[in-house]
Design a protein that fits this description.
Number of helices: 15
Strand content: 15-25%
Number of strands: 14
Bound molecules: iron/sulfur cluster
Distance between the termini: 28 Å
Largest sheet: 6 strands, antiparallel
Helix content: 25-40%
Radius of gyration: 23 Å
Length: 455
Amino acid sequence: MVRVHTVAPGSLGAELGLVPGTELRAVNGRPLEDFLDWEFLAADERFVLSAKLPTGQEIEYDVERPEGLPMGVTLEPPRIRRCGNHCDFCFVDGNPQGLRAPLYIRDDDYRLSFRYGNFATLTNLKPWDVERIVEYRLSPLYVSVHATDPTIRRWLLRNPEAPEIVPQLRMLAEQGIAFHTQVVLVPGINDRAELGRTLTDLYRLGDPILSVSVVPVALTEFSKRRLVRELTGEECRAALAAVGQFATRALADRGVPWCYGADDLYLQAGIGLPAAAWYGDFEQRENGVGSVRYLQMRIAEARDRLPDLAGKRIGVATGTAMGPLMPQVLKDIAAATGGRFELVVVENTLFGPSVTTAGLLPGAAIEAALRERRDLDFALVPAEAVNDDSVFVDDVGAGELADRLPMPVCLSYDFADVLAGGQADWRTGGQSMPAAGHSRSARPAVRLSARGGQG
Ligand code: SF4
């Protein structure tokens, strides 16, 4: 059973009499377990919907709808499938005390993998899940492989029951499912020769493996650190050499690099990033792969729509990971607008300085970094740091933050969304803080744990 959360006025759902709280029980007699059932089973032009209204009335609708006309119904959030692994580097376990309850949820949910691009390990798949993945063609899925050697993977996941990943991927691939994969690199465990083996095994699976990213393990001040440490610069360079070998081979065989290093890996290795064209459609951008080049590309694309900002000083808040990379982005945007863009690198006061991603910056740290900057005409704050309710990880609301700062501020994913997107409240000196529209990035708070947790 799934429950209706909202019904758009004037929509087909409203016409049927669906209201928030209505239980949607079955479509054509098939019980609805979650949003996937609803979306796939109710996709036809004609179907019978069994529902129970909040009044207790049970009702059957014979639904007929013109092709493409949405029902206008959103559902209550699904119950997240919990993770059964216990990775030593799990970011969720490394959260400090006192955060919102959802931030302690370790999700490992193939449904969120399909819908939002969250990485899942597939270690908790039941036969019924496999049938659904195949029936609904949930493709591509984002899968944390880490290592194809079953012993090493089980060690990394701290899960002796984890099934072998290669047969699992092969079986799904044979049924038409494709994958974006990642390897979170842990020194001494799945790097060097083991990374070579993993990349070889994935490459041999052929076209269904659309990409693989190699991401350096990230630990917080609160991580267990019993078994895992961070990579050295030399280890990052060795990993990039392996990435380069496979990318060269894939370019020759498949026309795409296929194997990508995360921006962090290049940064820690002290090696310059590849050009934007290297990243193709930036499929793993939200995994920190190609983020810098993506920003530069967005600025270049929006160049004709960017305003004249000559004489303006604009603060750009970001995490320490992007600190060394951002100047090349700001140079582009300054050249395009004439504005003076000043980088404000914010250290993560909640998780500790080793957490460098902008997506996990607490509102309080951004406030501390900007509150004395009366010299700024306005400031841009990373939109990925707030959830769908515009709340930072430390429960500070975006509006609250804006009220406490001396300059107008805007949430921004990529500069162009605010500067060229007509959402710039800074023009009027207003202090409201709209979330910039950006479909793929507008993900729920669970996304924060997915990236940070590297699950
Ligand atoms: S890192 Fe991911 S797979 Fe590992 S325990 Fe945490 S949520 Fe689970």
